[in-house]
From TrEMBL:
GO function terms (MF aspect): purine-nucleoside phosphorylase activity; uridine phosphorylase activity
InterPro entries, A to Z: DeoD-type, Nucleoside_phosphorylase_d, Nucleoside_phosphorylase_sf
Species the sequence originates in: Actinotalea fermentans
EC number from the UniProt entry: 2.4.2.3
One GO CC annotation: cytosol
Top-tier EC class: transferase
Keyword tags: Glycosyltransferase, Transferase
PANTHER family: FI09636P-RELATED, URIDINE PHOSPHORYLASE
Protein name in UniProt: Uridine phosphorylase
GO terms for biological process, alphabetical: purine nucleoside catabolic process
Catalytic activity: uridine + phosphate = alpha-D-ribose 1-phosphate + uracil
Domain of life the protein comes from: Bacteria
Keyword Transmembrane helix applies: no
Domain Nucleoside phosphorylase: 17-248
């Protein structure tokens, strides 16, 4: 029983699915992290695989870019393939000044400018939140615990700040899931940072809204691929390959939540 966008048969997907945006990142995760991975869907080049990790069945399916795209794949997996939990393995632009390229953000909530999510329930500003148990398990696996991650003092010199910490720090906090990649809204970005937003990406809020609607579970774990307020970014090849820590946290969350 294929759906319009997934060619797999019932039972082909595991209840737990890792979901990167990029189909080539999905293929790399399947080939380098999962055991005995087999291709279960390739409609539109959106590759889906099922294998095992530490003896537990796990699938990986790309979402494509943006809330409409991830909403289609998440809905079809939850509604027609028995999927219970989806963890997005994304990239994101760092907004908060203490973030560095290579850091990881566990998105406990996702603000959005998307009307699909914002207007989901008439007259209500829908709150797009991750599943608590997955968030807590991912944070525990990262050693972040449930306390706010330590930030460098505001008056520390920038170079000193960078020397005192390693790339690959993990933070738990809000992201903005925007419909606009090439955004020209400096005031909006400044206000989002003032309100504690860590990073910008394009899918988490849509995934959380679909999970809420379908009564399922979801989380987004994003690796910082570029910095909005500093001239630093990864190439497309690096964005395809930089997922190790996020995948490890996602798999730990599936195992321990
Ligand atoms: O790397 P992925 O997971 O696709 O995530 C980010 O990258 C894309 C934009 O380049 C958007 O999908 C954004 O959310
Ligand atoms: O949506 C995104 C993803 C990565 N980097 C950005 O600046 N925006």
């Amino acid at each position: 029983m294929a759906t319009p966008h997934i060619s797999a048969e019932p039972g082909d997907f595991a209840p737990d699915v890792l979901m990167p945006g990029d189909p080539r990142r999905a293929q790399r995760i399947a080939e380098t992290v999962l055991e005995d991975a087999r291709l279960v869907s390739d409609v539109r080049g959106i590759l889906g695989y099922t294998g095992t990790f530490d003896g537990r069945p796990v699938s990986v399916l790309a979402s494509g870019m943006g809330i409409p795209s991830i909403s289609i794949y998440a809905t079809e997996l939850f509604r027609f393939y028995g999927v219970e939990r989806i963890i997005r393995i994304g990239t994101a632009g760092g907004m908060a000044p203490h973030l560095e390229v290579g850091d990881v953000v566990i998105a406990n909530v996702a603000h959005t400018d998307s009307s699909i999510v914002g207007n989901k329930i008439p007259q209500i500003h829908f709150s797009a939140g991750a599943t608590f148990s997955l968030t807590a398990a991912a944070a525990d696996a990262a050693g972040v615990g449930h306390r706010k991650a330590a930030k460098p003092a505001d008056d520390a010199p920038a170079a000193g700040r960078r020397r005192r910490r390693k790339n690959g720090s993990v933070y738990v906090g809000p992201v903005i899931s925007s419909d606009i990649f090439y955004s020209d809204r400096p005031l909006t970005n400044e206000l989002l940072v003032k309100h504690g937003t860590l990073a910008v990406e394009m899918e988490a809020a849509g995934l959380y809204a679909v999970a809420a609607q379908e009564g399922k579970e979801a989380l987004a774990i994003c690796t910082i691929s570029d910095l909005l307020f500093r001239d630093e970014s990864l190439s497309s090849a690096e964005r395809e390959q930089l997922f190790d820590k996020a995948v490890a946290l996602g798999l730990a969350a599936f195992a321990n939540a």
